[in-house]
Structure formats: structure tokens, C-alpha cells
User: What shape does this take?
Amino acid sequence: MKNLFKKFWHVIRTPSVHYSLGFLTICGFLAGVMFWGGFNTALEVTNTESFCISCHEMRNTVYEELQTTIHYSNRSGVRATCPDCHVPHNWTDKVARKIQASKEVYGKIFGTIDTPEKFEAKRLELAQHEWSRFKANDSLECRNCHQPDSMDITRQSKRAADAHQSFLFTGEKTCIDCHKGIAHKLPDIGTALAD
Assistant: This one.
């Protein structure tokens, strides 16, 4: 192991026979810029609603459900897209979420949810994964648009104002605790909702 390290160190510190250090540095910098640009471009392409609904599994189920909600069409004209609710906005959390989403790509490739029947059979499991993720990150995606300190609870119903004061503002609960099914049909959950 020590000899291997010595060989590696010798190769790294030995000057190039054909190219100057400046040329190699510039080439390395340009390669890094190209990699970073390609990586960010791919990240942004996969962070669009059109990419999300390019799979019929999403387009014909949860996207259709979203279209009937206030998050899709409302008096203010502000519309939430798939990534707004399912992908954090800050870069490090976004990359971590994309890594988690690779499991969903596996499901697409191997057909675990490729029919409406298979999707419905997995709906509760998929929803519970999302609910757990929202709970763990204190509903970070919700808070990208809905800031508790900007809420005017005097304009809310008494029930909503009481719930927000009792749970949200105290940190006892997070958005997803009360707002499951806000944009998609709730799965048949029985007692699982209390979890």
C-alpha cells in the first residue's frame, strides 16, 4: 500500500513531458466548468413539471388530481408545479432529494407502478414516504411559499387560526400533519392517517 501511494505521488508531482502546467491547469478548469454546467443543466431539466409528467404514471394519476386543486388554479394565478412541492429549492437539499428520487426512477424502469392498478396498490406506501419526508424536513417545500410569520390568522376561519396557533406556531406540528391530501387524492389509509 505504501509503495502504491509513493508511485501515485511520483506521477502526480512529475512534470508533464508534452504539456505545461499552465495548459493542464486551464484544461482542468475548463473540464470542471463543462462538468458543472452539464450537471446543473441536467439537474434543472429534471426539475420541471414537463419532465415529471412525461411518465404516464404521473400524468394520468397525480397530475390529473393536482389540476382540480387550489394549488393548480386559483384567484391569484399563482400555480405550484410538481418540483415546487416535491423538491426543495436550496441547492444542497435539492441534490439530496434528486438522489432519493433515483429510487423512483428504479420503479419506473422496472414497472412497479406502470399501470393504474399497480399505482393504486402502491399509493399508500408512496404517500407515506412523502409524508415522512415532509415531516422530517419540517415541510420545507411548503414553507418555500407559505411563511408562518406572514400568515394573517385574523383572516382565517376560527378552526384554521386555532390550529395554526396551537400547532404550527409552537412547532408542535408541521404543515403535512394536517394537510395530507392537499394536492392529491388521499389513499385508503384507515388508521394510518393518525401516524
About this structure: The chain is about 60% helix and 0% strand. Residues 150 and 183 are 22 Å apart (CA to CA). The mean pLDDT is 85.
